[in-house]
Give the backbone structure.
Amino acid sequence: MEPSLTGLRVLREIAERGSFTAAASSLGYTQSAVSRQVAALERASGVRLFDRRPGGVTLTAPGLTLLRHAVVALDALAAAERELKGLAPERAVVRLGAFPSAGALILPRTLAALRRTHPAIRVTTREAATPVLVRALRARTIDLAVLAVRPPYRPLDDQRPPLECETLLETRLLLAVPADGALGGRAVVDLEDLADQDWISGASHPAEPTMGVWPGLPGRPRVTHTTRDWLTKLRLVAAGCGITTLPPELADVVPAGVRLIEVRQGPAEQRRVVAARLPGPRPAALAQVMEVLRREAAPGSGRER
């Protein structure tokens, strides 16, 4: 095999982005250029690297094998480039991905604790939806992902080997409503009380339920405002613009004018916060980050200081 470096970079980018189009946009290439690079890689390797599916592509088993070695080669070249330029070797780096609301509480506490206890470790973070972070793990562009998953707790994807997942927290959804609104004076509401409400939601994704709308709501929800940012959602609730769902861990950052209440009827909307990674040896820096993350994600940890 004599694959080009450009081809290997394209392979990694497609694996992370989930489509030729998204990879082309990220790399600044045309889609036809990305397709040519993939065709050249498949000719050089003699195997099919991607399965085409509705909405994108996934790596085949041979594609995953090539990706694993491509990432090692690309990282080694990046290290060689730093050395040739006379730059100091990077500190131990752990690349951490997290679902949006983790960035409002769990992530800041974890990073603050790591600065105190493990200053030699540099943690980089990125926020994204679960499907994006799972692809990034497979592409090895992040080392660890903090994800929120809902029952039934199925594997995060159908690729092999399965991702290793450790549960950090079990939780259940609450409803954020305007304190001076019709629902604000109640501690509990029935599911039927939510049928004619304005909702503040995150953008929908084919692989995820609409974040912000109560799951199992009868009828079609009336989404009046869309934003991924949790603080924006809560400010809109405080302004009386609608209601939204919220994990109880964010109770400490709820602004004035917002009341958190429970929803009665229907199954309890449980959520599980997990840390996911590829199986294999766990470098010391990653193990230390996991130890701190586990402690900071524990219920009540933010109130012990």
Notes: The longest strand covers residues 164-172. The chain has three domains: 5-84, 92-170+271-303, 174-268.
